[in-house]
Amino acid sequence: MIGEISSFSNALANAFTNTLGGKSTQISSWRNTLRASSSIAMAIISVVILFNLNTITLRVILIGIAAGFIGGLGLPFIYQAFSIGSVSFVSPVVALVQSFNLILFAVLVKDESISWTFPIATALGALGLFLASRTSASHQKATLKVFGLTTAAACCFTGFSVLMTEIDESQIIAALFGARIGVLLVSLIFSPKSNQKPQSSSWKKYALLSGSCEMLANLFFMIAITNLELSKVGVFMASAPALSALIAIKLMKQRPSIANWLGIAATSSALAIIALN
Question: In the Cβ-directed half-sphere of 203, how many Cα atoms lie within 13 Å?
Fold first, then answer.
């Protein structure tokens, strides 16, 4: 039960992370959002690690830093995609690309075979993306730029997921501490520009909430993969596109069309098939 609850909580926290980060970027810039969100997440894990100092090893910290740095490189892309694109399109794309990347890794590196259901999932995913790319009821459109940003983010997030599977349950907090160092390094590389001063300071609350949710999402993901088979974790994570779309209705004033909802349903089904097989 812990694994199932953590898997769904990961999907929900990720949905909030991305939409809140997108909202902050709309008001300010992705650089400001990245710096604020990474700082609050680092502050949270720094307090938690004080009670888990005995779990720290050089290997775990280095894996965490590498995973966090690679995953952190995807944050500027996803913040921008959510700020300028349709959430009902961006969410399915990032979920599907991540899943297909993990399959590619499993086949090429782990020498696993592809199930006979994979072509079905591929067809469903393609249909889902086509429907999700239709103009939403609130007139948001899917563009090639948004698709490129989302795909780049998904590739970076795949790297984070692959590296973090090397961590044992007893090393979760130490690994997350290392990961937050990696993300913080990314935010220092892409520091906010002095000429990018937002007209409103309301972006800060969205950025800080995004960073807090991201920290929770990382924690739930680690708990999930150490208590449940990765395939079952994937089934629950398939709910992320629908959750993001629901959150965006209120937070970003985006209303998916019927075609968009059908696309989200199709991509979620494709993700569930991929995860189960």
Answer: 25
Number of structural domains the chain divides into? 1
Dihedral sign of CA atoms 118, 121, 125, 131 in order:
positive
- Residue at 131 is within a domain: yes
In the block, tokens 């972006």 appear at 203
Tell which residue, 79, 92, 74, 86, has the closest CA to residue 26: 79
Residue 186's domain comprises 2-191+201-276
Matching residue, tokens 């569930």: 272
Q: What is the pLDDT of residues 175-192, one digit of tens each?
A: 999 999 999 999 999 988
Which residues of the chain are under the pLDDT cut of 50?
none
Q: Does residue 107 lie in a domain region?
A: yes
Tokens in use for 96? 């599907």
pLDDT of residue 210: 96
pLDDT of residue 47: 94
Contacts of 54 (CB under 8 A, 6+ apart): none
Residue 262 CA to residue 269 CA, distance in Å, equals 11
Q: Is residue 187 part of a domain?
A: yes
| CA 258 from centroid of its chain's CA atoms | 25
Closest CA to 208 of 47, 32, 83, 65: 32
pLDDT at 23: 95
For position 43, what pLDDT does the model report? 95
The end-to-end CA distance of the chain, in Å, is 21
